[in-house]
Amino acid sequence: MSQPLLLHLRSELKQAADPSRAPQMQKYMKSAMPYHGVPGPLLRLVLRKVFADLDFQDADSWSKTVLYIWHNARFREERYAAIALCEWKKAKAFQTLETLPIYEEMIVTGAWWDVVDVLASRCVGLLLSRYPKPVGKEMLRWSQSEDMWKRRTSIICQLGFKEKTDLKLLYACIEPSLGSKEFFLRKAIGWALRQYAWTNPDEVRRYVRTHEHELSPLSKREALKNI
User: Fold this and answer.
1) Taking the CB of residue 2, how many other CB atoms lie within 10 A of it?
2) pLDDT tens profile 40-58
3) Contact at 8 Å (CB) between 32 and 92?
């Protein structure tokens, strides 16, 4: 199933593409991998069409297909398709602890915000909501990883949790990166705090005040932006 699906996907993307847009899309994303030239709204329509009649017997066949598309993608939209297959409604039953290593591989090898942020907030976040203790422990390990994107994931994986945010976990995942000079970690800290500020602005103010000399100006600015 994997190879025919990728070939079908590639064919549909080529038909939908505007090749004149591809260089600018690649430049904007600073991507080594080229684009077909399919804008986001149209990409979603193409994927809906390609995935419409798709069915998997079990989690193993689904995960193998996701990784086959990921590993054999020639264009960035094809990698976006692999991520969309992770978010796919019919794949919800396959989202177990065994799925986390798949997302870890995609995060480490994808290594850029357009890939990592979706996987972190929607896919890893879903696993965290389902398995808070084991996935939470793994996020604590990721927060101290040498890989910046795993650190970023641990910080932003609760973006959509609102009042269900585990503050103890969030602060513990932020702490190892407080002194980092990496833009994407500083931005992630501010983003995570800003999202929680919609739920509890007083707590975010308190946290920023307490850590005023540790947080970067970028993190503080982002955290307090909507308060």
Assistant:
1) 15
2) 999 999 999 999 989 998 9
3) no
